[in-house]
Amino acid sequence: MAILVTGAAGFVGSRVSRRLLDRGEEVIGIDNINTYYDPALKEARLAPLLGEKGFTFVRGDIADTEAVLSAVRGRRVDRVVHLAAQAGVRYSLEAPRAYIRSNISGHLEILELCRAFEGFKHLVYASSSSVYGGNEKVPFSEADRVDTPVSLYAATKKADELMSHVYSHLFEIPQTGLRYFTVYGPFGRPDMAYWSFTKNIIEGKPIKVFNNGEMWRDFTYIDDIVTGTIAALDKPPASDGPLHRIYNIGNNRPEKLSRFIDILEELIGVAAVREMAPMQPGDVVRTYADTAAIERDFGFKPSTSLETGLRAFVGWYREYFKV
Asked: Is the pTM of this model over 0.90?
């Protein structure tokens, strides 16, 4: 049996595919390698996987019914890790249709695909901490209300959770949704603050510090995210309980933006030129994951400190870009 990984050229998807291959799984990866950020980075993530025993890659759009069906035609798939999505909170204000197509239509296509597989075991999909919106109660708990999103991106991720609940209820598809909290690390996304700050500090350019630095994020290192994702995949919901579950997956330790910049300055060896700026539309002041449920059910406990994770990223960045 094969595992389908959507977004296989993405930051998390490529790492999940690697981990699954390393333990002997057969993996089918699909990704449209869009131009939201430099496709060369996606190709670089994908390159080590191509030609690996057990790995098949299909270039295709998950919102395209035929592309999804073609990816698995003639193959037996019993598990799906659905990580493909249009990412980015701020970009959702500029290109809303891209989010509806990828995050809602694309999620529907994956649900329909899982519904069609006989003996299907488990769909694990990526939700987001963004669903908590401007929630002021911390830490964020899976039991909190999440019906006041502050960005279209967040709204699409909440919609995914609702759609998954319906499909688990109507068609008995076992599903686990993971609310990722600020994933970072080598080969990460260029639209994230840790990447743009590193780039600008090295190049001597100013960095914009939103809300005058009064922001906190629950930064979660990529290796911890992959470990938690696969732990969830390996333990589908029991047939005698709810078939759709939601978990936070974060570091359970919010870090202030100013401290985050301090660490980068020390690692790079250059003082940042900080430009204070107001809060941006769609952004939130704080994210903070209550991880009691995922620790209880899967033994998930992140082990990478922010200093260790940023050191790995800065080292990778310097090597990758030769700076």
From this structure: yes
